Amino acid sequence: MSQQAPSSSSDFMTSKDVRDAYGVDLATAEALRGGFMEVTRHMHRTLQRSAFSNVVRELLDFGVCVHLPSEDGIELVAVTEGCTHFAFTEAHMTNFVIDEWGLDNLGPGDTLICNDPWRGAIHMPDVNLFRPVFWEGELIFVLSDAAHLLDIGGPVPGGFNNAARDFFSEGLRIPPMLIMSGDKPVRSTMNLILENSRTPMQNLGDLRALFGTMKVGEARLHRLLERYGPKAVKAASRYTLDLADRRMRNAVAAVPDGVYEAEEWIDDDGLGTEPVRVNLRGTVKGRHIELDFTGTDRQPLGALTTCWEEASRVLIGAKMILDPDHPMNAGAMRAFDVVSPPGTVVMGVPPTSNSQHAEVATAIASLSLQLFSKMVPERAVGEDGGTSNSNIFGGIDQRPGREGMPFGFVVIGGLGWGGNAGADGISFCTTPLFGVSSPTFELMERDAPMILRGLNAQIDAAGAGEFRSGFQTALALEASGPMSWSAVFDSGRFTRSGTAGGGGGMTSFGYRVRKDEGGGIPMSNGVVPLDHLTPLIGRFSEDGGPDPVDGEWGRGTEHMTAKVTNIPLDPGDVLLLVPASGGGYGNPLARDPELVRRDVWNELVSVAGAAANYGVVVDPETLELDEGATKSRRAKLREAWQRDGAPPISMLRPWPRTAEQMKEVGA
Amino acid sequence: MTWVERYIQPQPAEQRPTIERVPVEGAECPQCGGKDVRRYPVANQHGARMAIKCQDCLHALAYERPGPDDGWPAFRSVTYDWAASPSERSAREDLERRKDA
Predict the structure, then answer these.
(1) Could you give the ipTM of this predicted complex?
(2) Which residue of A has its CA nearest to B57?
(3) Which of A204, A233, A509, A525 is deepest in the core (most CB within 10 A)?
(4) A6 pLDDT band (50/70/90 cuts)?
């Protein structure tokens, strides 16, 4: 197994190279490389189509992988589209679990389950299954699949207990256990999981979907083994890993040797009010990079901790910036060592809680993107909104025909991604580290007593730049029955910065919404007038408007944090939830004025926002560009920004107080 | 650190915890000839490992599986090196019986 850098500076291997090194011809090696990915695609489709919960079937919060064992350890050979971070974490977790259980103790039809964050799981609701694949009595591969179960017990439905101080207050911790033995479900393990959950039906459905997914993966691998033989299949696995290694090492070699630093701040841990610092140093030497989290704050007393997974998830920046085109596998991880001091917020020690793991994850994704953007400025990417924006609703349904049925539902609103050197950031997406989808709201309204009241792009909120960030979703939801709401938001205090002279984006915020007497809500382009709003989470100005610049954190809110747990909602209660946007790329004054005018026409940017953030003057009546006035305004802004600092943080100014004022400010 | 201390650990006293990079006496880097070779915990493509690395050029002389005294990873089960029970390896036993037959 290659531990040291391949010597070639070419990204590819010749037919002779492949034959000499692996004993198979290049065409066979490439066919099998594609075959391994195709195995995971079959697994992906199986799991998506057969899972019960919305988290798996709609949000795609799962991962499926093929791994190759060797004397040195186990390496992830193939993974497919799904929730991105499993492409990193499954590599480590498979090693933890199989190392502890022992390959020699596994037989055909065995499947292990584990959800332990100290053995590499992302958090306890994510159950991870591992199944050996035998061929003619020999163990050739290990398959893994992982999915977020709706509920895994503990005091808070859905498991995001922001008030937890330890994992005992979080849910059921499952060490490596057999859940299938000789292809039969292990009843004691099944019962342990199903009897400690509020959603046993969905959990059983999802577990059976995970079992079936493994069977499909095993059958597809058997087809490859049958057709090509185990010797060629194993050789092609090594080729697949080495090719990714070679490409990543070449990308690393192109980075100037040196030490690079980045830092980020997380709002708080939900218990205290202190921001938490995460720090990353990257030392580049030749074809190797050491990433070191030293300088990161210790684990706080609250649930803002991760227990291992940042040791692999931190490579998201490397993959996105150094070698974004090649399929991910563990070969692309060989160029890196990660140093992560135990006791830090990214390597919490037991019994800490990691209920807020997602907010650490998004901060580390921003940190990693920032660090690798410094290494390769021409491929720099502005930071995304930097929050998971996870909303978990749960309760007992009281709707006719569903009386007494427990429900759980997860809603993740989309962020704005940062701009980059060639394009605007994507709108309405979760952080690239997660890559999960928003729910289908028609299914939400079917499966939970909840009604969608509004889903807009938040006007003027994208970080300005030559290439602006994407826009986040402004989401209004109404409870039509009693329920509890838990939420994990970050980027409420600190804006996510732009890059290469781009402006920062809007921070996260939330309100309770008061309906009109007739039940209506005046809402347009993400804006509801202040006379209908009560601050809930975020930074607010004196008049109650969201204000990431001069606003006070928690002013007039029910909570001094954006990480809240078990908030009761009564029928008719409405929430307006807006996560943060990302940062722009490049000076906003260099943006093509026609692109700004189009954003105004599309009601993404107000006329006032175009003038303030881009120096572009648009006639409010005709929506035509005034080129002369734009030139003059840009000259003034260029001078002002050189004198006073960077472009302004993007935000709607002023936030209207009444429905009548909404039109005046362009909302 | 005893096994039970790895189960329940306090919040660190220091605000920004660090790891120790332990000098390896007498070691020399085969790549650059550097004498500053150290052993410390890392994560690589295999997960938790102890790296023996030159601090001048970052060449890895070796990656070792962590031992009981390394305290790495932060948690490890007390049963880690216990033998598997018969019920935990029944499918394997079946396979081996079939092979022997």
Answers:
(1) 0.98
(2) A285
(3) A509
(4) very low
